[in-house]
Specification:
Layout lengths: L1 E5 L7 E4 L10 E9 L2 H7 L12 E2 L3 E9 L11 E4 L9 H4 L9 H4 L15 E4 L5 E3 L5 H4 L7 H9 L9 E5 L3 H13 L3 E6 L2 H9 L4 E4 L4 H8 L5 E6 L4 H10 E9 L19 E3 L6 H12 L7 E4 L4 H10 L5 E4 L2
Parallel strand pairs: 9-10, 9-12, 10-11, 12-13, 13-14, 15-16
Antiparallel strand pairs: 1-2, 1-4, 3-5, 3-7, 3-16, 5-6, 6-8
This protein binds nicotinamide-adenine-dinucleotide and zinc ion.
């Protein structure tokens, strides 16, 4: 089968021919219908050899969907031919966090060598992918896999951040969304769908700000030296009740710190490596700061339900497997509008 792999440190993704995998006991093989490209893939491919822990070659694709094509020994209750999304942050399945469906916060996964598909285990950017357990499949039903596959990360991750900031998103509140790329453009829609908050979107790119308006931002602000002042003006000087930073670089974290309101909340989702000093004389009284990771199994079901009832949708750029390296190059340049998705 064809697969998109990261094979050599410092070299980009490549399309290669590999053996089609066989499902082991308890596992399920999906024929991939869609796989999304995430900026985290570039984070991984940008790591120097001494910090790289994902194994080589690495089949990319931590946003995946497919139809069940072969069941491993002992798998029951899953229909051949059924269409599913893959829940990616695999945990041990038995600890307290996993029992709540919060496998994204499983404390034992790393020690047990359990890694998400595309971030250790072979990912979905291939013709076939192995899923380790049926609990990591969420039925898609009639949803178009290409249209919704990115909700497994670009939807789930903002949803998890937004839901955990929900007490700050009362009617009349102001939410700032920094970085309106794959995650951010879904984040804007989720805030609109689950709250009465006013949304201010911030980005360096004029095109991304256009997209932000299209998907429901009330105001857009260029991410420059005037951004803090503009946001302060738009909030009547009070600042933002919740700030979602989908870039996480130092300049955006500095904006977040300067625009968060007293008793507000900052969620740093982007892994751009910026640091936010928190405490008296740094952040306002009562302000909370969190760096959330991905989301829970039930949250993935909820985010797919938001798509099912038409509340949210991903702006998709569609590519074939052979075009994946070109799509990754566009993601790197910052010219993808919404999310790039490979449909084998
Ligand atoms: P993306 O490239 O699609 O979007 C990033 C957006 O940020 C772009 O629109 C870009 O123009 C904008 N941006 C960059 N610098 C900016 C600045 N200084 N000010 C304002 N906007 C700026 O990336 P994505 O796939 O949406 O991922 C976003 C980030 O979230 C990445 O760092 C990714 O690794 C991370 N991520 C984190 C998690 C998690 O669990 N915490 C999950 C998925 C992705
Ligand atoms: Zn991701």
């Amino acid at each position: 089968m064809k697969a998109v792999q990261y094979r050599e440190i410092g070299k980009g993704p490549e399309v290669v021919e590999v053996d089609t995998p066989e499902p082991g006991p308890g596992q399920i093989r999906l024929k991939v219908t869609a796989a999304g490209l995430c900026h985290s893939d570039w984070f991984v491919m940008g790591l120097p050899a001494e910090q790289y822990t994902y194994g080589l070659p690495l089949t990319l694709g931590h946003e995946g969907a497919g139809v069940v094509d072969k069941l491993g020994e002992g798998v029951e209750g899953i229909e051949l031919g059924g269409s599913y999304a893959i829940y990616g942050p695999w945990g041990c399945g038995v600890c307290h966090a996993c029992a709540q469906g919060k496998e994204n916060y499983c404390p034992d996964a790393a020690d047990l060598g359990i890694t998400p598909p595309g971030l250790g285990a072979p990912g979905a950017m291939a013709e076939y992918v192995i899923v380790d357990d049926k609990r990591h499949l969420v039925p898609l039903g009639d949803l178009d896999p290409v249209e919704v596959v990115s909700l497994t990360d670009a939807g789930l991750t903002p949803y998890h951040a937004i839901v955990s900031a929900k007490e700050h998103l009362h009617a009349g509140a102001v939410a700032v969304v920094i970085g309106v790329g794959g995650l951010g453009h879904v984040g804007v829609q989720i805030i609109r769908a689950v709250s009465g908050a006013t949304v201010i979107a911030v980005d360096v790119s004029e095109e991304k700000l256009e997209l932000a308006k299209e998907v429901g931002a009330h105001h857009v602000v260029a991410s420059d030296e005037h951004a803090v002042e503009r946001i302060r003006e738009l909030t009547g000087g009070r600042g933002a009740d919740a700030v979602f930073d989908f870039a996480g670089v130092q300049p955006t974290i500095d904006i977040a710190r300067q625009v968060v309101a007293v008793d507000g909340d900052i969620q740093i989702v982007g892994i751009g490596g910026g640091i936010l000093a928190t405490g008296f004389f740094s952040t306002p009284f009562g302000a909370s700061v969190r760096a959330p990771y991905w989301g829970s199994r039930s949250e993935l079901m909820e985010v797919l339900d938001l798509a099912r009832n038409g509340s949210i949708g991903v702006h998709v750029e569609r590519y074939s497997i052979d075009e994946a390296p070109e799509a990754y190059a566009r993601l790197h340049e910052g010219t993808v509008r919404g999310r790039a998705v490979v449909a084998p």
